[in-house]
């Protein structure tokens, strides 16, 4: 048998290929052998590439006349195989300058040569590394149309691949549509199996995120094209079914008005769930398609839930030994399913697949690790389970904390997302997180140069600080330091500022000693808060900053006066105090925060309350508040009335103000169960889960009972 | 085909009627059969589809000349496909791989499972021929890297290599790998892949029509007594049992 090492040795084969005096037959034989060695065999492709086989083959094709069809066919096939599904191969092929030679083959008179050339070019165009095709040049568009109009199946396939690879901007989409390419592609849906698949993929590319082109696709001839694609979702070939589904998903995601029919949407979900069972590439991609269908769309998530999607996906997880791509896809689909609906999360947790997800946290592939974190983040949005402390245990927390030092940024960010939720713990188990070095890691990452990492790590710290006990707070603060916290408040990114301010809010919440934290190191933190409030243009920063002041204003006399100082930094200056601007804001959340601060500053019962009241009056703040007695926002209205009520006590009971503070204890206000309110708000669920659930994870206002 | 139409129509009719079993006489049944018009060309296409898919190239050529039915595929490609199939059936797997690659290099490059099964078959043939050293080298060089890429391939590889541990294959728990049926399985997998690459359905239409006929007859059995076809090779109508 010719398998013995000597004749198949790559080095010998290449010598034969390169030798100038070898006859055509010897070259042909060598080419064919190289081709047969590398097809289907990644390892061999790589070793041949390292030996410089690609330039050798390209120089053969370059030196071969048009009528030597067998040499042309064999060398084109070898080049195509190097480029097939293998990025290093595509790179080598492009670098060796194979492109123009393959293009030349398309005009050969021998059909087999044309086939071989078109196939190889198609392989190259299936890679991201292929050069971008400029559709906006007239000559290029003509060439593309000539490809699509060809009788040769491989050539039309090449045309479709070029579109799938290169069409990105809406200008290009419109140009393709205007040149009649879309119409041509729709025509190809009636063609052979490979033409159908290629054109489905191209159509999806041409219409994606372009409502104008979608309407040209859906509209004409009573939606003939759309029903043709819908019909193909029932095709006998799984790949065709998948591509047809993906095409419809693009239509739906681009123009939500299309595909209103509930039956089609349900069917799409069911087909995709069924395709998950395909053992090959189709099964791998089906979960990604499902994700793109349901992501951010609660109605579709509900439909998927009713279609038993959670059970089906979890079944695959339980089977174990999944390929990386499939594993990633399934985790991401589960993440999307559990992103909004509590019943999805409950079902997921009931199916006992957490172990698979935890295993995935230490998977070899970074994409799988990140997907596992994203899945955990979605599932841990379940307040019910968070409050039961169901995620705060070593098996989950230790691998997550380890991922904070992952080499991939996307894994780090994903791990931070999951951690941020999990540390919102209502039981007293935050120490588990601290014991495994989580705080140190978070603090380290909050100094990162990458703004996303900084944002997410501060977010994590903020949630960790939520309802933390005194020992916990002290531990975090020691690690974090006042100066780092002050610099985070003044971070160049407003989103980081917001999280840092939220962190301070949670830090000063609780017992009165906590308020002292903002006064250490010459009140460096409070100064930073004041500075941001004076200069910020972002409402979100203003809201968080005002709540910090509002919380500090619940402290003792000294604390309250410090807040006054931040509100009126330049005594005697005639410029309007910043709080007036906040009270007049269009954002009701900002108005609420500002009124709360005034409310706490003027809360009767403390000695300086009247003095502050007078100062606020003379700055025009009280009259502004009086104008807000009928604020459209109920929350604002309620607080405004409390402030006005308090001001009334100053007017009436002024002579008695020196009586002990407890006399003015107002049970209605002081035992205001703010935690219960936060709790209820969270239970009601929100549209934008990550953002809002986290925002609400912090107490936004606070009263101290004294 | 006409019979199938009738059975279905009869089913529908009875469905809407009373529950008692209806008796359909032979004359009645044949009259109904004659009423169904089926184009001769369609029947010819069905036959051609069968010949082409199953690879009877000479018969297809003759049938084309006699009936004027054009095959939906270049007949030359059938010869190539049959050569591949035959090579696998005879155990010349390397030869088969080269032939597939000449036919269309994409088939094995984009179908890792098929490629693995062909390589596995190659290994089986080496073991069958007692070339132990060569088999081991081949398994290490060619198959082990595929096993690294895919867990299920690794399992299959382990099973195949287990053959080497047995002197007497008849005692080997994985001995069925050496059966001729394993070759046939691999051969039909290649055949299907080539057909798919040619945008051709991998199964002929005729057998599925016959399956549908049997299904429909079974459905009708519950509801009526009618002239049934029991022997599909002669398609003779049996008298209804009353």
UniProtKB/TrEMBL annotation, chain A:
Superkingdom as given in the UniProt entry: Eukaryota
Keyword Amino-acid biosynthesis: no
Keywords assigned by UniProt, alphabetized: Cytoplasm, Nucleus, Repeat
Subcellular location: Cytoplasm; Nucleus
The keyword Cytoplasm is annotated on this UniProt entry: yes
Xref: PANTHER family: ARMADILLO REPEAT-CONTAINING PROTEIN 8
Name of the protein this chain belongs to: Armadillo repeat-containing protein 8
Species per Swiss-Prot/TrEMBL record: Vitis vinifera
From TrEMBL, chain B:
InterPro entries: CRA_dom, CTLH/CRA, CTLH_C, LisH, Ubq-SigPath_Reg
CTLH domain location: 77-134
Pfam families reported in the protein's UniProt record: CTLH, LisH
PANTHER family: RAN BINDING PROTEIN 9-RELATED
Protein's recorded name: CTLH domain-containing protein
Naturally occurring in which organism (per UniProt): Vitis rotundifolia
């Amino acid at each position: 048998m010719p398998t013995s090492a000597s004749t198949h040795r790559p080095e010998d084969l290449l010598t034969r290929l390169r030798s100038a005096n070898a006859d055509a037959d010897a070259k042909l034989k060598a080419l064919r052998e190289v081709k047969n060695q590398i097809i289907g065999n990644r390892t061999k492709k790589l070793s041949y590439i390292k030996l410089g086989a690609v330039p050798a083959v390209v120089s053969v094709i370059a030196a071969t006349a048009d009528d030597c069809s067998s040499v042309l066919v064999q060398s084109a096939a070898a080049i195509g195989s190097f480029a097939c599904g293998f990025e290093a191969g595509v790179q080598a092929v492009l670098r060796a300058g194979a492109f123009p030679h393959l293009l030349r083959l398309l005009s050969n008179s021998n059909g087999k040569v044309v086939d071989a050339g078109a196939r190889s070019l198609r392989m190259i165009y299936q890679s991201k590394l292929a050069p971008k095709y400029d559709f906006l040049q007239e000559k290029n568009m003509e060439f593309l149309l000539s490809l699509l109009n060809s009788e040769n199946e491989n050539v039309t396939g090449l045309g479709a691949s070029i579109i799938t690879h290169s069409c990105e901007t809406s200008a290009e989409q419109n140009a393709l549509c205007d040149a009649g390419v879309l119409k041509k592609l729709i025509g190809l849906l009636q063609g052979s199996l490979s033409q159908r698949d290629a054109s489905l993929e191209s159509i999806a590319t041409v219409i994606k995120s372009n409502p104008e082109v979608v309407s040209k696709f859906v509209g004409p001839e009573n939606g003939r094209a759309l029903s043709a694609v819908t019909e193909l979702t029932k095709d006998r070939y799984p790949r065709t079914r998948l591509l047809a589904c993906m095409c419809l998903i693009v239509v739906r995601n681009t123009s939500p008005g299309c595909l209103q029919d509930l039956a089609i949407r349900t069917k799409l979900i069911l087909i995709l769930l069924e395709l998950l069972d395909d053992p090959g590439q189709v099964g791998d991609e089906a979960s990604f398609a499902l994700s793109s269908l349901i992501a951010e769309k609660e109605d579709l998530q509900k439909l998927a839930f009713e279609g038993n999607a959670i059970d089906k996906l979890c079944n695959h997880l339980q089977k174990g030994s999944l390929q990386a791509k499939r594993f990633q896809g399934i985790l991401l689909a589960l993440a999307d399913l559990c992103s909004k609906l509590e019943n999805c999360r409950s079902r997921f947790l009931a199916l006992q697949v957490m172990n698979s997800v935890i295993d995935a946290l230490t998977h070899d592939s970074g994409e799988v690790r990140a997907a596992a974190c994203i899945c955990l983040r979605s599932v841990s949005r379940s307040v019910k389970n968070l409050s039961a402390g169901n995620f705060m245990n070593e098996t989950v927390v230790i691998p997550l904390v380890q991922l904070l030092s992952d080499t991939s940024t996307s894994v780090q960010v994903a791990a931070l997302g999951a951690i941020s939720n999990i540390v919102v713990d209502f039981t007293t188990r935050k120490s588990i997180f601290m014991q495994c070095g989580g705080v140190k890691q978070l603090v380290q990452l909050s100094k990162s140069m990458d703004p996303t990492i900084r944002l997410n790590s501060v977010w994590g710290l903020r949630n960790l600080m939520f309802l933390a006990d005194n020992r916990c707070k002290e531990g975090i603060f020691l690690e974090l330091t006042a100066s780092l916290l002050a610099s985070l408040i003044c971070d160049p990114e407003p989103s980081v500022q917001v999280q840092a301010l939220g962190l301070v809010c949670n830090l000063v919440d609780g017992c009165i000693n906590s308020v002292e934290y903002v006064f250490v190191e010459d009140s460096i933190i409070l100064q930073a808060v004041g500075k941001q409030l004076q200069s910020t243009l972002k409402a979100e920063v203003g809201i968080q900053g005002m709540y910090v002041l509002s919380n500090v204003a619940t402290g003792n006399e000294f604390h309250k006066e410090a807040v006054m100082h931040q509100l009126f930094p330049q005594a005697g200056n005639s410029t309007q105090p910043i709080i007036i601007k906040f009270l007049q804001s269009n954002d009701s959340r900002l108005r609420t925060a500002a009124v709360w601060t005034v409310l706490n500053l003027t809360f009767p019962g403390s000695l300086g309350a009247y003095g502050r009241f007078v100062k606020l009056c003379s700055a025009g703040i009280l009259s502004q508040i009086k104008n807000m007695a009928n604020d459209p926002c109920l929350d604002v209205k309620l607080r405004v009335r409390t402030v006005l009520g308090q001001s009334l006590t100053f007017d009436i009971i002024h002579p008695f103000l020196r009586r002990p503070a407890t006399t003015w204890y107002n049970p209605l206000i002081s035992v205001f169960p703010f935690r219960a309110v936060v709790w209820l708000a969270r239970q009601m669920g929100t549209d934008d889960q990550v953002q809002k659930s986290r925002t609400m994870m912090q107490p936004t206002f606070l009263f101290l009972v004294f | 085909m006409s019979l199938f139409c009738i059975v279905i129509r009869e089913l529908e009719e009875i469905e809407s009627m009373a529950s008692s079993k209806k008796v359909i006489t032979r004359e009645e049944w044949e009259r109904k059969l004659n009423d169904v018009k089926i184009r001769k060309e369609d029947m010819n296409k069905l036959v051609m589809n069968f010949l082409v898919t199953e690879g009877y190239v000479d018969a297809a050529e003759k049938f084309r000349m006699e009936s004027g039915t054009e095959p939906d595929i270049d007949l030359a490609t059938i010869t190539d496909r049959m050569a591949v199939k035959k090579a696998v059936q005879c155990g010349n797997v390397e030869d088969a791989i080269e032939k597939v690659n000449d036919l269309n290099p994409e088939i094995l490059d984009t179908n890792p499972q098929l490629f693995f099964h062909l390589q596995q078959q190659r290994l089986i043939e080496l073991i069958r021929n007692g070339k132990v050293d060569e088999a081991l080298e081949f398994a290490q060089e060619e198959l082990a890297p595929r096993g690294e890429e895919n867990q299920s391939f690794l399992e299959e590889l382990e099973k195949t290599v287990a053959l080497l541990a047995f002197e007497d294959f008849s005692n080997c728990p994985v001995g069925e790998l050496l059966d001729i049926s394993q070759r046939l399985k691999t051969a039909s997998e290649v055949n299907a892949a080539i057909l798919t690459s040619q945008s051709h359905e991998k199964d002929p239409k005729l057998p599925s029509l016959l399956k549908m006929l049997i299904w429909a007859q079974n459905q009708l059995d519950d509801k009526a007594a009618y002239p049934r076809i029991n022997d599909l090779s002669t398609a003779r109508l049996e008298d209804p049992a009353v």
